[in-house]
Write a structure and sequence with these properties.
Number of helices: 8
CATH class: Mainly Alpha
Largest sheet: none
Number of domains: 1
Order of helices and strands: HHHHHHHH
CATH topology: Vanadium-containing Chloroperoxidase, domain 1
Number of strands: 0
Structural class: mainly alpha
CATH superfamily: Phosphatidic acid phosphatase type 2/haloperoxidase
CATH architecture: Up-down Bundle
Helix content: over 70%
Length: 177
């Protein structure tokens, strides 16, 4: 059962907006567009980051790991219905989807990617964090997640991204003789 704060924020964000806002939010939640952006950023990191291709591989691993953990491990354990399935007042302009709600895999994936980007290319941090916020808000606006689903996704994704960075940094701590 969602908290009263969850419901209030959902009602505040999940409102009818102008068609341009619907299109922006739909684009922000488009998996294909987000994956293409991640691939482009990975190439950029491989060419321009001081960590080069390690950063590129970490970015892609972070997105994959966050998606895997959120969709295959946490969602089946939480079994939380999407607000567009459980609340009649929620509008879902793109449809509701069949999966569970908690946590938001979109939020987890973008937070994991942003964690790697902030580490590998700090100059891109404002862009990465703005994208994380936009994607998270889009999931609530589109009626497919409660705000707490998004926050949980952000925390999960950031933790996965940070864990992968830590593992990558261990290569500097362990010297093979």
């Amino acid at each position: 059962m969602p908290s009263p704060v969850d419901l209030q924020l959902l009602r505040l964000i999940n409102r009818e907006g102008p068609p341009a806002l619907d299109h922006l939010m739909a684009a922000a939640s488009n998996r294909g567009l987000l994956l293409a952006l991640a691939a482009g950023v990975a190439v950029y990191l491989g060419l321009r980051s001081p960590h080069r291709w390690v950063a590129a591989v970490l970015l892609l691993l972070a997105v994959g790991a966050a998606d895997l953990v959120s969709v295959r491990m946490v969602k089946p354990a939480a079994l939380r219905e999407r607000p567009c399935h459980s609340l009649a007042s929620v509008r879902a302009p793109l449809g509701c989807g069949s999966g569970k709600s908690f946590p938001s895999a979109h939020a987890a994936d973008t937070a994991a990617a942003a964690t790697v980007v902030v580490w590998a290319a700090p100059a891109l941090a404002p862009f990465a964090l703005a994208l994380v916020a936009l994607v998270g808000v889009s999931r609530v606006y589109l009626g497919v997640h409660y705000p707490s689903d998004v926050v949980a996704g952000w925390v999960l994704g950031a933790a996965i991204g940070a864990a992968l960075i830590l593992l990558a940094r261990l290569r500097y701590a362990v010297r093979v003789r």
